[in-house]
Amino acid sequence: MSEQASNLDKLASLQPTEAEVTAFLDASRVSPESNLIGVLQAVQERFGFLPAAALRQASRRMRIPLSRIYGVVSFYAQFYTEPHGRHTVRCCRGTACHVRGGKKVIQAVGDALNLDDGETSEDMMFSFETVACLGACALSPVVVIDGAYYGKVTPRRIQTVLSRIIADESKREDGK
Ligand code: FES
């Protein structure tokens, strides 16, 4: 099987069934009174991303046009419509970070994870992305991992942080 075909199979296998989505939205009591952002966050927390089936069902249940839901989803960088890694690493490529060595930090993260900007590792452990500004320019260069800010980072420090996460993940795997 080609690498591309096996990746597509893997992505397809990560999609929940319609029944799983229904069960989750039933249990969450999603209705016209629900808060859209809250529902989207809950769905993403449960499935790791926003499956199309969940967005369709949420649209029907909340009586919000699907196009509006997609508008909200694309507005917020926190939401993903594709399967996403268990850990999200965001590097800033903004000017303040760039002039303080951000490019080397981005390179170090890419090398440590063996990923390019916008990619997710095959084992779904990491997603890597660069963003225009992480809103913490005084701390530049900045990297955000799973929502935690790391300021004034160096390539070596961020590689140490990533190695720790990788070590924790393999301990978790071994303990299964
Ligand atoms: S430019 Fe990097 S946090 Fe603003």
Number of DSSP-assigned strands = 4
Bound heterogens, unique? FE2/S2 (inorganic) cluster
Total number of distinct structural domains: 2
CATH topology of the largest domain: Glutaredoxin
Principal-axes shape call: globular
**Gyration radius, rounded:** 18 Å
H and E string: HHHHHEHHEEEH
| Spatial gap, N to C terminus | 29 Å
Determine the structural class based on helices, strands and strand pairing: alpha+beta
Task: Provide the residue-averaged pLDDT.
Answer: 90
Low-confidence stretches: none
Helix content: 40-55%
Strand share of the residues? 5-15%
Architecture (CATH level 2) name of the largest domain: 3-Layer(aba) Sandwich
> Helix count?
8
Strand order of the largest sheet: 2-1-3-4
CATH homologous superfamily designation of the largest domain: Glutaredoxin
Describe the protein's architecture and organization.
The chain is α+β, with helices and mostly antiparallel strands and 176 residues long. It has two domains: 3-75, no CATH class; 87-174, Glutaredoxin, CATH 3.40.30.10. Helices cover 52% and strands 10% of the residues. The chain is built from eight helices and four strands. It has helices at 3-13, 18-27, 36-47, 52-62, 66-75, 95-99, 102-113, 155-174, and strands at 87-92, 126-131, 143-145, 148-150. It has a four-stranded mixed beta sheet with strand order 2-1-3-4, covered by helices on one side. A hairpin with a 2-residue loop joins β3 (143-145) and β4 (148-150). α7 runs parallel beside α8. It is globular, with a radius of gyration of 18 Å. The relative contact order is 0.11. The model has no long low-confidence stretch (mean pLDDT 90).
